[in-house]
Design goal:
Order of helices and strands: HEHEEEEEHHHHHEEHHEEHEEH
Structural class: alpha/beta
Strand order of the largest sheet: 3-2-1-4-5-6
Shape: globular
Largest sheet: 6 strands, parallel
Number of helices: 11
Helix content: 25-40%
Distance between the termini: 37 Å
Number of domains: 2
Strand content: 15-25%
CATH class of the largest domain: Alpha Beta
């Protein structure tokens, strides 16, 4: 009987043969990708490797205030000089925004079901609550000693990606991983303070302006909000600083889907979707040419806000009805 090699074991063997490693993650970075990458860099260095962490897009608040994020370089990886590149949470290479990776040995670690398995080693587990849990397993498989710093990074990643244990990826695996991390020295109170109690006054003002655009469908199941470049410019904020604004709209009783329209340039809107229960955010996003998780996804639409917001709301109503009908027929 042939025993199948686990991807994590393949990755450990490859890392042991490497001297210089690069880490990158997806465009519009979030807490899971950022903190998992920091933990991985620390872990590689503890094994005597050189590790560079390079991403394409700017770091969002509150992570800009994390001292260890200073080690993250914003830009493009050189097209040579590394023994392998690890891509975190990238469904394909283009999701990283890195353009010089063709000649590299690539290791793909992800928890999105839509991953295209493009790398030399692919470790994709859609049941993982966060990519941080996979990084934790990789550290343990490689014999890395979990220092309090590594544990803090991975704990922060899981807390961030589960919405402080409020999202649907809050599973037994998430709590089991956090248990191991707290035992290794992660600090839950300090992490929550850093993540959720560091808003600038301008961010709260922006929140008020965004919530003033709130519109619900007649059934009260879809909430829509919008954000415009003029407000970001006036308040000296960036689009990457606003990813958590959907939280209050999502808390409205009866809401199944939140649509957050973010103006990227005139007549171009990035729409972030957050959903609950049986409402499938990724299926909605895919209808519009986007993708993501079952309960967190996104896509881009083109046209005046007054037009595209009405059209998208109507389409999402139809998609939710179709999802409900399909679920009822099973």
């Amino acid at each position: 009987m042939t025993r199948t090699t686990r991807p994590v074991d393949e990755i450990v063997r490859k890392i042991r043969d490497c001297r210089r490693l690069a880490i990158t993650s997806h465009l519009r970075p979030d807490g899971d990708s950022l903190c998992s990458g920091l933990a991985l860099a620390e872990a590689f260095e503890s094994l005597g490797k050189t590790a560079d962490y390079v991403i394409t897009d700017p770091i969002p608040v509150p992570f800009t205030m994390f001292p260890d994020c200073r080690r993250i370089r914003i830009g493009q990886l050189a097209s040579s000089g590394y023994d392998a590149v690890i891509l975190l949470e990238c469904a394909d290479v283009s999701r990283s925004g890195q353009t010089g990776l063709d000649g590299y040995f690539k290791i793909n670690i992800d928890h999105h079901y839509s991953n295209s398995h493009y790398a030399d080693i692919n470790w994709v587990d859609a049941e993982a609550p966060a990519v941080a849990e996979l990084v934790l397993d990789l550290c343990e498989a490689a014999g890395v000693v979990l220092t309090p710093k590594i544990a803090d990074h991975l704990y922060c990643a899981i807390v961030s990606d589960t919405g402080s244990f409020q999202f649907s990826n809050t599973t037994a695996r998430a709590f089991a991983a956090c248990h191991r991390l707290v035992q290794a020295g992660a600090r839950p109170i300090e992490t929550s303070e850093a993540l959720y109690h560091n808003n600038r006054p301008e961010k709260v003002i922006l929140l008020g302006r965004v919530l003033s655009t709130l519109r619900l469908n007649p059934a009260g199941t879809i909430a829509q909000i919008g954000m415009f470049r003029k407000d970001l410019n006036e308040l000296n904020l960036r689009e990457v600083d606003t990813e958590d604004i959907t939280t209050l709209a999502r808390s409205i009783m009866g809401i199944r889907v939140v649509l957050f329209f973010k103006e990227m340039e005139p007549d171009v809107f990035r729409v972030s979707i957050r959903s609950k229960g049986e409402a499938h955010a990724a299926a909605i996003a895919e209808h519009f040419g986007g993708g993501g998780h079952a309960h967190a996804a996104g896509f881009t639409v083109y046209g005046p806000f007054s037009k595209v917001s009405v059209e998208v709301m109507a389409a999402v109503e139809r998609l939710l009805a179709a999802q409900a009908e399909a679920a009822g027929s099973r």
